[in-house]
Design goal:
The protein is an all-alpha fold and 100 residues long. The protein has helices at residues 8-24, 27-48, 54-90, 93-97. The protein is built from four helices and no strands. Helix 1 crosses helix 3 (54-90) and helix 2 (27-48) packs antiparallel against helix 3 (54-90).
Length: 100
């Protein structure tokens, strides 16, 4: 694997990932996840109802969007952390020390 210096964007990703790791370890994060999961379940139930008219079909479409956004909110932190870890893997060894 080719090691290269980190650019400013990659350094920022690593700093953000560090904060996210700390956040994910808090009880507040669990509460947040539970709230988002409950919202997703509610919106999924809305999508399961047959659309009787155009208005209901539009509400279901909005509910589908809410489900997708909720899933994104739950998965985004782990995706950022994964990208930051990849940056660190490819970084020069001396630069890695700056983020330990």
């Amino acid at each position: 694997m080719v090691q290269r210096p980190l650019d400013e964007g990659q350094k920022n990703d690593i700093k953000v990932a560090r904060v996210l790791r700390e956040t994910l370890a808090t009880p507040g994060w669990k509460v947040y996840c539970d709230l988002i999961q409950a919202h997703i379940l509610t919106k999924e139930r809305e999508c399961e109802q047959p659309a009787e008219d155009l208005s209901m079909a539009m509400r279901q479409n909005a509910a589908k969007g809410a489900v997708l956004m909720g899933r994104l909110c739950l998965s985004l932190p782990s995706g950022i952390i994964q990208v930051a870890d990849e940056h660190l893997t490819r970084a020069d060894p001396d630069e890695r020390l700056d983020f330990e």
